[in-house]
Design a protein that fits this description.
Blueprint (H helix, E strand, L loop, with lengths): L1 H16 L21 E5 L10 E11 L2 E9 L7 E9 L2 E5 L6 E5 L14 E6 L3 E6 L8 E4 L3 E7 L5 E9 L2
Amino acid sequence: MIKYLMAVFVALLLFQSCESATESYFEKNEFMPLKVGNKWYWNHWIKDTTSVDEIWEVVGWQKVNCHYYFKVARYNGPGDTTISYLYFRIDNNTLFRKWPGRDETILADFSLNLNEEAYWSEDLFVTKKDESTIVFQKTIGLDLPQLEFKKGIGLTRDENFGVFHYRHKLVGYEIK
């Protein structure tokens, strides 16, 4: 009987430790306005054009490992029916990103101050922060921001200089 009661107690603890979601559950942040229906139009910035070759759309939310994430559909440009997903959540001004099959990573902490180092990434600093913009940049002397967020819009530039170099530049958006 004691083993049975212990098993029930452990199950209740596990059940209660997971979050539950309602529409008002999600933390809001003006630097990354996550809401179902919001869309961002991206250019991979290879030729520095304004053509759209990737679209992100918040299509709902999904529970993954006891956290609720906004589920973002990724399309490879207008008219494409190929969909992949990525997931975002905000907790205490920290923006988390999760790709399917991978661990969650911190993308940004909006509470950091100007010139403060990002605790999740070596040599990444807040190089601009004002009422409308926050920029995270590596200290390797690049002229371009690695991550740039605009208030009311979200991520406007995403650049990675790692093994796979890529650039994303926001060319349009629809924020609800």
